[in-house]
């Protein structure tokens, strides 16, 4: 029986997911507490990633995926999986069924004609003139069409929409397949978890899962479904409700609702965060709040670059790229998109490009050089006892170069 190589690939549409995919592969975006990568690693076979070049070394070191180079080995079946597929609970079972197929087939996205998943048996690869990965995708489009119920991330707000829909299901899947102990009624823990005095818990809409070494301070309100990753600290008087997913090593305080926060991000102080996505290594200053509802109660439209997209959502907050920061009492208006490595002060009334000091309230918007962010990264890493590697420094430089057009098209007054 042939072994299977699984190639998770990013296509041209991955750039529509900026800024949340500028510092990470699309398969590493969290939604409803899972990443697509979590499901891919459950499939028997060799897992390979085909990502944007600036993420190759990050992929190998941080996500432990071999980077695709060529198809020299044609003796293995191929399973191609689009990195924008949403990580729905139990997805591994359906992908494993595809990996065991006995004939070639493909699922094409009806909206964009993109390949979502394709199976190519080794016997079909022998005589194919495949020199580049694009040749492989082109061949996949010609395979017999099949149907598979898949959700796809096309824009950042799809990540929040999927998160809200799937959060309770994901928590129940974890309880069925992972080791948890019920510490309080509806509150499940792994390992050494500390819960402070006088917690208030509501699990009527879903359970609360606390992973190893989580600390929950006194007087906290937890309303499920909630997932708290390893080593995260929930500050006293915090309120987490209506579907919150926190990555590992996060510090969280204030009121958080229906939001996703990736590892190593801090929101320690009072302030509201709702229906939002925060990347890694972000810090929100005390009193930072975002709006997730228009005064008209209407559906929210978002500007992604030059595109205006109707989300169809009444509640939608902000999307913030990795390494960005807010000063105290920053107010972020509804549906704003904030790039990587930017710093915000006052009122955020428009989208914020990457690598910008944004203080329009004070009449100031200026460029934030990459070298400044490299030094900031070093200090942040040291606080968490994380070693700064050359690939981390290079990521800051690469993201700066990749976001130049974003700054140029956004505003002429960025110096």
Largest sheet: 9 strands, mixed
Specify the CATH homologous superfamily of the largest domain: Hexapeptide repeat proteins
Average pLDDT level:
93
Q: Give the tally of structural domains.
A: 2
Quaternary organization = single chain
CATH topology of the largest domain: UDP N-Acetylglucosamine Acyltransferase, domain 1
Q: How far apart are the first and last residues' alpha carbons, in Å? A: 61 Å
Number of strands: 35
Structure description:
The protein is α/β, with parallel strands linked by helices and 415 residues long. The chain has 2 domains: 4-140, Spore Coat Polysaccharide Biosynthesis Protein SpsA, Chain A, CATH 3.90.550.10; 156-410, UDP N-Acetylglucosamine Acyltransferase, domain 1. The strands form 7 sheets. A 9-stranded mixed beta sheet has the order 7-8-11-14-17-20-23-28-31, with helices on one face. Strands 3-2-1-4-6-5 form a 6-stranded mixed beta sheet, with helices on both faces. Helix 7 runs antiparallel to helix 8 (390-402). It is globular. The model has no long low-confidence stretch (mean pLDDT 93).
Properties at a glance:
415 residues, alpha/beta, Spore Coat Polysaccharide Biosynthesis Protein SpsA, Chain A, UDP N-Acetylglucosamine Acyltransferase, domain 1, 2 domains, six-stranded mixed beta sheet, 9 helices
Short note summarizing the structure:
The chain is an alpha/beta fold.
Task: Give a topology summary.
Elements: E1 4-9, H1 36-40, E2 46-50, H2 56-62, E3 66-67, E4 77-82, H3 91-99, E5 105-108, E6 115-120, H4 122-125, H5 133-140, H6 156-177, E7 181-184, E8 187-189, E9 194-195, E10 200-202, E11 208-210, E12 215-216, E13 221-223, E14 226-228, E15 233-234, E16 239-241, E17 244-246, E18 251-252, E19 255-257, E20 260-261, E21 266-267, E22 272-274, E23 277-278, E24 283-284, E25 289-290, E26 301-304, E27 307-310, E28 319-320, E29 325-326, E30 331-332, E31 337-338, E32 343-344, E33 347-348, E34 356-359, E35 364-367, H7 370-383, H8 390-402, H9 404-410
Parallel strand pairs: 1-2, 1-4, 2-3, 8-11, 9-12, 10-13, 11-14, 12-15, 13-16, 14-17, 15-18, 16-19, 17-20, 18-21, 19-22, 20-23, 23-28, 24-29, 25-30, 28-31, 29-32, 30-33, 32-34
Antiparallel strand pairs: 4-6, 5-6, 7-8, 26-27, 34-35
């Amino acid at each position: 029986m042939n072994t299977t190589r699984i190639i998770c690939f990013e296509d041209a549409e991955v750039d529509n997911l900026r800024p949340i995919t500028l510092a990470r592969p699309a398969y590493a975006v969290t939604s409803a507490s899972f990443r697509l990568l979590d499901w891919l690693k459950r499939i028997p076979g060799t897992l390979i990633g085909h990502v944007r070049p600036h993420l190759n070394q990050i992929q190998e070191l941080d996500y432990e995926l071999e980077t695709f180079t060529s198809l020299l080995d044609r003796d293995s079946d191929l399973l191609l999986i689009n990195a924008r597929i949403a990580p729905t609970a139990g997805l591994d079972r359906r992908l494993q069924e595809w990996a065991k197929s006995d004939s070639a087939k493909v699922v094409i996205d009806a909206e964009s004609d993109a390949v979502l998943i394709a199976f190519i048996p080794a016997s079909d690869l022998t005589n194919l003139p495949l020199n580049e990965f694009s040749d492989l995708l082109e061949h996949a489009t010609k395979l017999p069409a099949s149907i598979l119920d898949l959700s796809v991330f096309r824009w950042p707000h799809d990540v929040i929409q999927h998160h809200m829909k799937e959060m309770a299901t994901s928590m129940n899947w974890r309880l069925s397949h992972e080791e948890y102990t019920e510490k309080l009624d509806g509150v499940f823990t792994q390992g050494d978890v500390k819960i402070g005095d006088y917690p208030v818990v509501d699990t009527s809409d879903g359970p609360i899962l606390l992973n190893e070494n989580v600390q929950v301070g006194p007087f906290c309100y937890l309303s499920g479904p909630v997932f708290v990753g390893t080593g995260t600290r929930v500050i006293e008087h915090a309120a987490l409700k209506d579907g919150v997913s926190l990555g590992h090593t996060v510090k969280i305080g204030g009121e958080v609702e229906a939001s996703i926060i990736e590892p190593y991000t801090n929101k320690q102080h009072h302030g509201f965060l709702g229906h939002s996505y925060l990347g890694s290594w972000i810090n929100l200053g005390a009193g930072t709040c975002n709006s997730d509802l228009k005064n008209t109660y209407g559906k929210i439209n978002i500007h992604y670059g030059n595109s205006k997209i109707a989300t169809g959502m009444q509640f939608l907050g902000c999307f913030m790229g990795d390494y960005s920061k807010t000063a105290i009492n920053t107010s972020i208006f509804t549906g704003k998109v904030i790039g990587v490595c930017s710093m915000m002060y006052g009122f955020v009334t428009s989208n914020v490009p990457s690598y910008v000091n944004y203080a329009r309230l004070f009449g100031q918007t200026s460029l934030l050089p990459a070298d400044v962010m490299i030094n900031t990264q070093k200090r942040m890493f040291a606080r968490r006892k994380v070693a700064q590697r050359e690939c981390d420094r290079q990521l800051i430089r690469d993201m700066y170069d990749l976001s130049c057009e974003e700054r140029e098209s956004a505003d002429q007054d960025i110096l």
